[in-house]
Amino acid sequence: LSRILRRRERLAHLSSLQDALNLLRKSKNIIVLSGAGISTSCGIPDFRSSTGLYAQLQDEGRYELDDPQQMFDIRYFKEKPEVFYSFAKQIYPSNFVPSPCHRWIKMLEDKGVLLRNYTQNIDTLESLAGVTKVLQCHGSFKTASCLRCKTRVPGQTIEPYIMAQKIPFCGTCRQQRDAELEIKRAQKQAKKKSKGKAKASWDDEDEDETGEEDEWGGGEPGIIKPDITFFGQALDSEFDECLFKDREEVDLLVIIGTSLKVAPVSEVLTHIPHSVPQIYINLTPVHHVQPDICLLGDADSIVTYLSSELGWSVPPPAAVVHP
Ligand code: APR
Fold it and tell me: Which GO molecular-function terms appear in the entry (predicted)?
């Protein structure tokens, strides 16, 4: 109760733009926690707004999903990978240009006051804006992995499949399976030959004949999935490692363009010391958590205003070279 009262007192105190400016002016280790709202001005829909991806999937209704979030559910993906691969090209990072928010985060890094950007986005626009201290909490299309043998490949290798709306199967698995099948075949041939010479009565050997051809059970090689974190998958351990380290150094948390609906990223607010002030910049208010300062409106406009008040110049849009 004392903690809530202390936070209430601070809320009363820190509820103005001026306080936000003062905090930004004096902070040296800022964590920026960002979500889809910082990319909407780039033409990438967010997820939960009325015009977001989930509303679009619901309205379109052509993917036979019980719930739009199933599109990013690992169990559903394993059952029907063709559904995700018929859709993935719509969210595959292409010629998008970083927003003023991305450039603002880059500016914080250039000023030496960005501790880390924890982004939930998979569009890699932070990297494109030149941010190096960025943690892709929900992964990205940069790499992809085989669900069966875990082989990791560069994301570009499955781009043709995504564009052609086809399922990429794992070449490593396929080679390994073919090699193992070849060995089994050769062993069988050898056994047949030796049985032909001496009537062997190794009943137990006969079982090998009826055993499965290979550990694949004759199935297909593994399916390759982009390394974006689906519902039902754990985040990469790097998230916990970074947060464990950063929580000791952070002196300001700025949350931009996220509904804070998805754990564990949404729990960052409770994993950092209560003494660290929190600024929430978003189009819509949030009710399940109480940041110290809420600046409601268009994120690009708000960060541009803050920078101008602080005399900080947000870098202009650089000539973006897509990898
Ligand atoms: N300026 C400020 N806020 C904006 C803007 C904008 N221009 N555009 C949208 N927003 C706000 C919306 O009002 C919304 O509250 O951004 C928020 C985006 O919330 P979500 O759509 O829920 O996206 P996000 O919070 O990033 O989702 C988190 O959910 O589905 C999973 O893995 C997916 O990473 C995603 C995670």
Answer: histone H4K16 deacetylase activity, NAD-dependent; metal ion binding; NAD+ binding
146 annotated to bind ligand: yes
The Å distance, Cα 176 to ligand 1 centre, comes to 42
Residue 18: is it exposed, middle or buried by C-beta count within 10 angstroms (0-12/13-18/19+)?
Answer: exposed
ipTM field: 0.99
Instruction: Tell which phi-psi region holds residue 107, choosing left (phi > 0), alpha (psi between -120 and 50) or beta.
Output: alpha
Q: Which residue of the set 13, 138, 271, 288 is catalytic? A: 138
Residue closest via CA to ligand 1's atom 25 equals 258
Is 137 annotated as ligand-binding? no
This prediction has a pTM of: 0.85
Instruction: Write out the two tokens for 289.
Output: 């958590």
The pLDDT tens digits of the residues spanning 109-158 come to: 999 999 999 999 999 999 999 999 999 999 999 999 999 989 999 999 99
